[in-house]
Specification:
Mean pLDDT: 97
Structural class: alpha/beta
Radius of gyration: 23 Å
Strand content: 15-25%
Helix content: 25-40%
CATH class of the largest domain: Alpha Beta
Shape: elongated
Number of helices: 15
Number of strands: 20
């Protein structure tokens, strides 16, 4: 039986942005209760077929949320700890799991250990908590000492996990969030910067608390299978597929997507076969999918592939109705806009897209082969692509067309088939000599159950 996170469809919330919270705040700012606004999104999220939420960052911070000030407080721009307890409880009552952002590679400069070093210098007991502390040179902030910073962003000081007290502190934080808020998982920010032995410590820690606790890591490059192992993480971000999903459409090149999937998940030699990687078409760090595509209509087959190829699909807030957003220089704010849900749903840029994603969510929930089925490629050209997800004696056939004209396809059935049902329109289809003959309009998708 699949675990909850293997069957999940995720909804990604960046709460500081979507609620329009202030960009910065300090210790004198009062708590502002924005979690009731976030709870208002839950019925909409459920209507998409989403069964889990990745939300964050949530730790008390100074600006964008990744400069942690206090790991045991919810950011006061969003509310207090009691607010988040209520949010998680409400989501759980609706059958929605909650996964939070674990920002453990670095802290902000207002974190207590860093401030103690500023105050007590060499006499601070926390000098060993950070990488590269050096009183022989100065930081760009003129602290009178230097330190290793994440990607040379000196508002983010890298923690030193070779120091046992740092590990124990963060593990205590994780236990606190499970005990206090009843969270179901953690997405580890910058997981590719964390030591493997620390990932193993986290795995042991969470397994003692919840046997079905999900650990997912942000990993951009490299061999994902080094991270996804029984003693470390359950999943990582599939940036390779993310890139293929938009560029494969922009270049009218389904070979790129098919090559990635074959390399990753093919049952005969796929390097990640059996793993459940986290699939996405956009997030809080990359341009919105509606802004990345050269042909707006390609967004439909993009989402079809997101929901039907191997992986755990995720939707970034607002992208389900076609929100635009591009980085401006190094500024991520355009990717993280404030959205008033009720008003947004009255003026949806692409209502057909919203409807299509709901259809995909329904089909995925109904068809077990889209979760557990093995992948088999059936047809491939630059502009048309068909494959099956097969589970035992049944499965789903998926076909997409990125052309600007109709495409007539003859798809060889991957298994003997006595029944073939169009999952979008409900029509019963008749195979012809082991083939299924269909015609797809520009940017149209086809999904059929076979058994």
């Amino acid at each position: 039986m699949a675990k909850w996170f293997e069957e999940a469809v995720f909804y990604h919330m960046y709460p500081l942005g979507m609620t329009g919270a202030p960009k910065h705040h300090d210790a004198s700012d009062a708590v502002t209760h924005r979690f009731p606004e976030l709870e208002g999104w839950l019925p909409h999220i459920a209507s998409l077929g989403c069964t889990a939420i990745y939300i964050g960052p949530l730790f008390e911070s100074t600006s964008h949320g990744y400069d942690t000030k206090d790991y045991k407080l919810v950011d006061r721009r969003l509310g207090d700890n009691a607010d988040f307890v209520h949010f998680v409880k409400t989501a759980h009552e609706m059958g929605i799991r909650i996964v939070v952002d674990g920002v453990f590679n670095h802290t902000g400069r207002e974190f207590f250990a860093f401030q103690d070093i500023q105050k007590n210098r060499q006499n601070s007991p926390y000098c060993s908590w950070y990488k590269g502390i050096n009183f022989g040179w100065d930081s760009p902030y003129h602290d009178g000492f230097g330190y290793e910073a994440w990607r040379n962003c000196f508002e983010l000081a890298n923690l030193n996990y070779w120091e046992g007290s740092v590990r124990q502190y963060i593990l205590d934080v994780i236990r606190f969030w499970i005990d206090t808020f009843d969270i179901d998982g953690i997405r580890l920010d910058c997981a590719d910067c964390l030591d493997f032995s620390f990932l193993q410590d986290i795995r042991r820690c969470v397994d003692e608390k919840k046997q079905d606790f999900w650990l997912m890591g942000e990993v951009i490059h490299g061999d994902y299978s080094r991270y996804v192992t029984p003693d470390k993480l359950n999943s990582v971000t599939n940036y390779e597929l993310h890139k293929g999903l938009y560029s494969g459409h922009n270049d009218h090149n389904y070979f790129e997507i098919a090559h990635s999937i074959r390399r990753q998940f093919d049952s005969n030699g796929g390097i990640y076969r059996g793993l459940r990687l986290y699939s996405f078409v956009d997030n809080h760090d990359v341009d919105r999918i509606a802004s990345k595509l050269n042909v707006p209509g390609h967004i439909y087959p993009v989402y079809t592939l997101l929901f039907t190829l191997p992986g755990i699909p995720s939707i970034y807030y607002g992208s389900e109705w076609g929100i635009q957003g591009r980085k401006i220089g190094g500024n991520d704010d355009p990717l993280r806009p404030a959205v008033h849900l009720e008003e947004a749903l009255k003026n949806v840029p692409d209502p057909a897209l919203l409807s299509w994603i709901k259809t995909l969510g329904r089909i995925r929930a109904e068809q077990c082969s889209l979760v557990d089925g093995r992948y088999q490629e059936l047809l491939l050209t630059n502009r048309q692509y068909a494959f099956a997800r097969l589970l035992g004696e049944e499965g789903v056939i998926v076909a997409v067309n990125n052309d600007d004209k109709n495409a007539s396809l003859s798809i060889r059935l991957p298994i003997p088939c006595s029944s073939c049902t169009d999952l979008v329109h409900g029509d019963v289809l008749t195979p012809d000599g082991g083939f299924l003959h269909i015609t797809l309009a520009p940017n149209e998708s086809f999904l059929a159950a076979i058994r």
